[in-house]
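Section 4.2 – Deliverable D4.2 (structural model, holo form)

The reporting period included a commitment to supply a predicted holo structure for the target in complex with manganese (II) ion. Inputs used:
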Amino acid sequence: MREFPWGEVRQALRVAQRVAVVSHVRPDGDAVGSVLGLGWALRAAGKQVSLALADGVPLNLRHLPGAEDIAPQVAGEVDWIIVVDASDRGRVGTALPAEAVVDLNIDHHKTNTAYARYNLVNPEAVSTTAVLVEFIAEMGLPLPQEAAEALLTGLITDTIGFRTANMSPQALRLAADLMEKGADLSTLYFKALVERTYEALRYWGAGLSRLQREGPLVWTALTLADREAVGYPGNDDADLVNLLNAVQGTLIAVIFIEQSDGTVKVSWRACPGVDVSGVALQFGGGGHAPAAGATIPGPLSEVQERVLAATRRLLAPQEV
Ligand code: AMP
Ligand code: MN
Ligand code: MN
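Output (structure tokens):
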């Protein structure tokens, strides 16, 4: 982070006219907020901007200005490619052509593989949008209200509403700065984190009705049949995993989401002092100490068994 060649990158970005900004598959608020936040800043600086997310924008983030301009893929020629909030190159999915070289990677995952020509990675930052606020200032880019709204959204969602253990006075100051740029905290918070569809709550119900516990470990699964039964249109957990973590006495919560392509999406959430990024990495995924994920091929019951075994091993040294 200290050795990042700010001057060199500033010069390269100044010359680039057409800039692509891309983030990870199954985008969360930080991915969408980072793409839009940097997109608006670059646009305000007169750049021609191409924004892409392989899986599009989830419903709870469609209110953000410019969300409708995000394409599934970067189309046409671009001079510079920036990937945000993605710990490895593969996380962008089909948003970029396979052979495209990434010029700049801006992220906060400690599992980041430094896959770009320039890598600005700060694992202490609470969100990639927090890293972007510094980047935008260092590059001398403007920060219009639309950018502030998107950047504050990433801060809100990655800290689950300012309540993760890595929250800092600095992160709160950053939120205050973005509010002063015109971002409405109350509305952005409600839209991104609180508001749910009726179908999503019934989907939670299906998962909660099968909730299981084994000491400090809780888990549940969401199946294709659950989604069909309640009419839930996504292929995610509708953020149910963040609720499982609230079960008293829990150190790790895991959720298994059956996919139609024969894989299972797994999400881990851990209490402070427990690091689930390693177990996710072991299954080909990644993430942070308190929140990690992986997509694992195999039938639900089999994946569940393998993942629970590995997760129990992680907890074992802590049980006296
Ligand atoms: P999730 O469980 O999808 O909410 O993700 C929790 C954290 O783990 C996020 O920071 C993700 O970026 C990261 N993550 C999730 N899935 C993967 C994956 N397949 N590879 C790398 N990182 C992942
Ligand atoms: Mn993310
Ligand atoms: Mn993030």
